[in-house]
Amino acid sequence: MAPIPAAATREGGRLRGAWFLVALLFLAALLLRLFRIGAESLWLDEAYSWRLASDGPLSILEGARGNRHTPPLYYFLLHYWMAFGDSEWALRSLSAVLGAAATPLVYLLGKSLRGERAGLLAAGASAVSPFLVYYGQEARGYTLLLALVLLQALFARRFLLAGRGRDAIGFAAAAVLALYTHYYAAFLLVGWNALLLFDLRRTPRALGIWIACQIAIGLAYLPWMLRLLDGGFGGGQTFRRFLFLQLPYTFFRFNAGYGLLPLSPEAKTSWTDFLVRNIPWIAAFCVVFGILVWRGARRLASDPAVLRFLVVPLAVTCLLSIAVSLRSNLISERYLLAIFPFYLLIAVEGASGGRIAKIVAPAAAALLVAALGMHYFNPRAGKTEWREAAALVERNERPGDVVLAVPSFVDLPFVYYHRQGAPVRGVRAPEPFAPEAFERETRAFAEAPRIWAVVSHTPDAEAILRVLAEGRETVLRERFPKENAVTVALFERGSAAAANGAGPRGGGGAERTIGGKP
Questions:
Q1: What is the pLDDT of residues 166-183, one digit of tens each?
Q2: Using CA atoms, how far apart are residues 276 and 267, in angstroms rounded to an integer?
Q3: How far apart are CA 152 and CA 214, in angstroms?
Q4: Distance between CA atoms of residues 128 and 32, nearest Å
Q5: Using an 8 Å Cβ cutoff, are 262 and 382 in contact?
Q6: Three-state SS for 157?
Q7: Quick one: DSSP state of residue 456?
Q8: What phi and psi values does residue 454 have, to the nearest 5 degrees?
Q9: What are phi and psi of 403, to 5 degrees?
Q10: For a tag site, which of 43, 51, 186, 516 has the least CB within 10 Å?
Q11: Which pLDDT value is given to residue 70?
Q12: SS3 472
């Protein structure tokens, strides 16, 4: 047997060492996403995931057709994953596994574009990213989208380098799965085509293969496209009044996550005050990571093919999301997670080489660690406290009570935690709010001796509670302030209140705010 060359031995050892580091980073990413994964209540969209995934496959398909936010693939996966249960931990752990799987995929993409060191740095950054950790702890399909986007990028890169048909087929498969996961995959697909049609313009054979695969993608997605033509889709963040602020806000959240400077309902209605109060934190993240992105883009200018590969999908997705949102509110930083890998690789490039990088890179690492700590331990951060709200009702409810969830859609997260006791009735809140119309909505419950009101996700909470309080005594009212806030109130008719005597456990007539100031 011929001896193995020393160079080959060293190369094999180096590769094994790199993959050992990647395995450690994957494990770290998984542990970070599983740590305290059940600490927060499910929020509204997660409760929707639970409700839809609890049904059978055909019901999931019909339910997703009726929902104009997301296609069905994630709900199918979650349906079978729920063999492990439907606790917060079980529901969210699918996202944790998919989010951790992004770490080796980021390594492979970074290595293909800029070498092994860049791949390892990018994998490490993705493992500890507060933004990715947050969505790795959420029972939604965003980390599935992230993994599929990374697969698209890997196959697109390989196809550009070698023009092999199997890589184009791999890209097409990942693209179809992404389209059945989230509608932003369509924006990204436009970006991929803008990039590859330009880069392949002088290679007719590869260009023909690429076009054939795009036709196949369109045919595979045609059944769902017909559904879109019958109603469109929506979502996004309604509280942002000025569309031009969305991209700067996304840039901040990409770096800081949500544990730092959480958005309360008050901040959403007075965002200028929120910005002014938090200028030091905002400036620190924007300056440090802005320098990294600026340096990364400048360094990549020496390799135009790689720069195009990262910038074109990112830019096209952003521009299309803004253009569509001028008519239909479809922009959100959570949807823009689809472009996070491209942003990350540009920023990581900026952390390499030069005296500036030796200062800025440690500063960026310190900010990431601080933001990750705030993600886990900031008492003001977190999701809407449906678990605590339901526990308050369960401690104090009695036979014959009526529980009203207002607006009607907030019954989803409340019912997840309130599975026993009085049935929960969702009540529509007219928009704009009109007391007379809301009174008609609740007339069927007018004779109930005790009415619980669970109110969230509406700027008209006070007006709603005033209508329900007419002719009744308010014997309990508590507000749970995190995220979108939820207020729980108990109203009794005069005779019932007098007969009951002592007040409820856990509250009195005056409003209390749990975990914050009233």
A1: 999 999 999 999 999 999
A2: 11
A3: 13
A4: 7
A5: yes
A6: helix
A7: E
A8: -120, 110
A9: -115, 120
A10: 516
A11: 87
A12: strand
Interval 448-498: pLDDT, tens: 999 999 999 999 999 999 999 999 999 999 999 999 999 999 999 875 555
Q: What is the pTM of this model?
A: 0.92
With contact defined as beta carbons under 8 Å apart, do 93 and 37 qualify?
yes
In which residue are the tokens 């390989």 written?
Answer: 158
SS (H, E, C) 401-444: CEEEEECHHHHHHHHHHCCCCCCEEECCCCCCCCHHHHHHHCHH
| DSSP assignment string, 122-156 | HHHHHHH-HHHHHHTTSSSSHHHHHHHHHHHHHHH
Helices and strands of the chain, counted as H and E runs: 23, 6
Tokens 């092994």 correspond to 116
- Round to whole Å and give the CA distance between 459 and 455: 10
Q: Which residues contact 268 (CB under 8 A, 6 or more apart)?
A: 239
Q: By 3-state DSSP, what share of the chain in percent is helix, strand and coil, each rounded to 5?
A: 65, 5, 30
Q: Which domains does the chain have, with CATH numbers?
A: 18-140 (no CATH), 156-233 (no CATH), 240-381 (no CATH), 386-513 (3.40.50)
Q: Give the C-alpha separation, 120 to 25, whole Å.
A: 9
Q: How far apart are CA 11 and CA 23, in angstroms?
A: 18
Sign of the C-alpha dihedral computed for residues 257, 37, 370 and 148 taken in this order: negative
Helix, strand, or coil here: 513? strand
> Collapsing DSSP states into helix, strand and coil, what is residue 234?
coil
Q: At what angle do helices 88-114 and 142-162 cross, to 10 degrees?
A: 20
